[in-house]
């Protein structure tokens, strides 16, 4: 449809009439949102969590108060809406200008991260230069850029303007559906419930997130800066954006099936991630499913040449496939998108993206782990054959 329209009116006309337009008001609102989230991150009471040893041998502390920030933000949203001070559909109605503002910030932040990495790095030895300007911009140079000692760019950007915004956008589009059509469908509620479970879970387990690829291995460039500020809130919430304008009423049977599949996917995702986290925290001295955890002891070297030991779990879920946590995530993603029906491809973007992202992640991670652990990783792969789906891949 869009393609036909583009051919009819020509590309300049097409973009002039359809491209999102900036708005000073929305840009200021977006700026206020960033400052508000930064203030919550900095000043709300917080547990101090410890990350994982970096390749240069740094062990960083993090403020993990995301759950409280999520509650304060949403309580304000609902409170102000209930008192009539805020139109709950505000984000939906101002979506265009907010999206442009988020993009501007995403690009600016990428530039700031690039310059900071050169002129004022937080941990010099944890920088990675590829030799290519574009690659460094895209994948980042610094591993853990910070303002001062504790304002961590990565944890803040991914969690606060990114993940907190996700459910806020959902709730706003639910309100928008109501304002447009006078009712709220079970499909938009299912998508919102599944998103909320995922988001609240993320913040309950924010400490766990410190031991995932995003924090431990990915450097901070466009991929994480723009990805967390724009791609994450805009694309992950596409289902509710779509359903607000194109309501879908699911039969009770379909609604129940989607909810059960989604919650099962989430349960698998959480249980798998919990097992790895538990084993790493207890250094293997724990039980999984009533039996002592089985681990492989492996060795690796940090950049300073020192040798370290680590463990790879090969029992419980992790004895079935090397990335079985991704399977749970995929079940959840497909359930969320299926709530939108099969009329359009657009709301399926999230599930398609997650499939590509997670398969690509497997390849990336396997290559990195193989370099890091050498023979230890080979032994692990022989012991745990499957990648994501036992018996299939
Ligand atoms: P993992 O949490 O699985 O972390 C992978 C790392 O864990 C490896 O690099 C390795 O790091 C270590 N590891 C690998 N195998 C083992 C093992 N057998 N025992 C112990 N440690 C092991 O991956 P991700 O960070 O990609 O994902 C975490 C979760 O987040 C997943 O459930 C995923 O689905 C989800 N996710 C969601 C996204 C979204 O946008 N919704 C995006 C990306 C992920 P080390 O060097 O420490 O050994």
Describe the structure.
The chain crosses the membrane at residues 67-86, 98-117, 180-200, 220-238, 250-269, 345-363. One of its GO terms (cellular component) is endoplasmic reticulum membrane. This is 7-dehydrocholesterol reductase. With 393 residues, this protein is mainly alpha-helical. The chain folds into 2 domains: 22-249, no CATH class; 266-393, no CATH class. The protein is built from 17 helices and 8 strands. The chain has helices spanning 2-9, 11-18, 24-43, 66-82, 90-93, 95-119, 133-139, 153-181, 186-204, 206-209, 213-216, 222-236, 238-245, 252-281, 324-338, 349-373, 375-383, and strands at residues 47-50, 61-64, 146-147, 151-152, 287-288, 291-292, 295-301, 307-313. Strand 5 (287-288) and strand 6 form a beta hairpin. Bound molecules: NADPH dihydro-nicotinamide-adenine-dinucleotide phosphate (NDP).
Task: Outline the fold blueprint.
Blueprint: H1 2-9, H2 11-18, H3 24-43, E1 47-50, E2 61-64, H4 66-82, H5 90-93, H6 95-119, H7 133-139, E3 146-147, E4 151-152, H8 153-181, H9 186-204, H10 206-209, H11 213-216, H12 222-236, H13 238-245, H14 252-281, E5 287-288, E6 291-292, E7 295-301, E8 307-313, H15 324-338, H16 349-373, H17 375-383
Antiparallel strand pairs: 1-2, 3-4, 5-6, 7-8
Helix pairs in contact: 1-2, 3-6, 4-8, 6-12, 8-9, 8-12, 8-13, 9-13, 9-14, 9-15, 14-15, 15-16, 16-17
Catalytic activity: cholesterol + NADP(+) = 7-dehydrocholesterol + NADPH + H(+); 7-dehydrodesmosterol + NADPH + H(+) = desmosterol + NADP(+)
Subcellular location: Endoplasmic reticulum membrane
GO molecular function: 7-dehydrocholesterol reductase activity
């Amino acid at each position: 449809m869009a393609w036909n329209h583009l051919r009819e009116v020509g590309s300049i006309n097409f973009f002039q009439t359809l491209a999102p337009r900036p708005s000073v008001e929305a840009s200021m609102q977006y700026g206020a949102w960033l400052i508000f989230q930064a203030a919550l991150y900095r000043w709300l009471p917080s547990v101090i969590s410890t990350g994982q040893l970096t390749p240069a041998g740094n062990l960083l502390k993090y403020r993990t108060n995301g759950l409280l920030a999520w509650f304060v933000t949403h309580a304000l949203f609902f409170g102000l809406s209930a008192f009539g001070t805020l139109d709950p559909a505000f984000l939906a109605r101002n979506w265009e200008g907010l999206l442009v503002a988020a993009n501007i910030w995403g690009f600016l932040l990428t530039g700031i991260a690039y310059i900071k990495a050169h002129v004022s790095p937080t941990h010099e030895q944890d920088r990675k230069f590829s030799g290519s300007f574009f690659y460094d911009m895209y994948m980042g140079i610094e591993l853990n850029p910070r303002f001062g000692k504790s304002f961590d760019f990565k944890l803040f950007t991914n969690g606060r303007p990114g993940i907190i915004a996700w459910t806020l956008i959902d709730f706003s589009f639910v309100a928008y559906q109501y304002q447009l059509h006078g009712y709220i469908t079970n499909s938009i509620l299912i998508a919102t419930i599944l998103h909320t479970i995922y988001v609240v879970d993320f913040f309950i387990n924010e400490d766990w997130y410190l031991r995932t690829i995003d924090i431990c291995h990915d450097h901070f460039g466009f991929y994480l800066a723009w990805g967390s500020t724009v791609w994450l809130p805009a694309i992950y919430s596409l289902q509710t954006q779509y359903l607000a304008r194109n309501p879908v009423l699911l039969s009770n049977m379909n609604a129940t099936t989607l909810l059960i599949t989604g919650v099962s996917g989430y349960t698998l995702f959480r249980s798998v991630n919990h097992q790895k986290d538990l084993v790493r925290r207890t250094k293997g001295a724990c039980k999984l499913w009533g039996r002592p955890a089985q681990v492989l002891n492996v060795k690796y070297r940090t950049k300073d040449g020192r040798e370290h030991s680590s463990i790879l779990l090969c029992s419980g879920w992790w004895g079935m496939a090397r990335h079985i946590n991704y399977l749970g995530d995929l079940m959840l993603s497909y359930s969320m998108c299926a709530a939108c029906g099969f009329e359009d491809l657009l709301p399926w973007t999230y599930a398609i993206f997650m499939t590509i992202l997670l398969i690509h992640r497997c390849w990336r991670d396997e290559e990195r782990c193989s370099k890091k652990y050498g023979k230890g990783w080979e032994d692990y792969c022989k012991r745990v054959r499957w990648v994501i789906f036992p018996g299939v891949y």
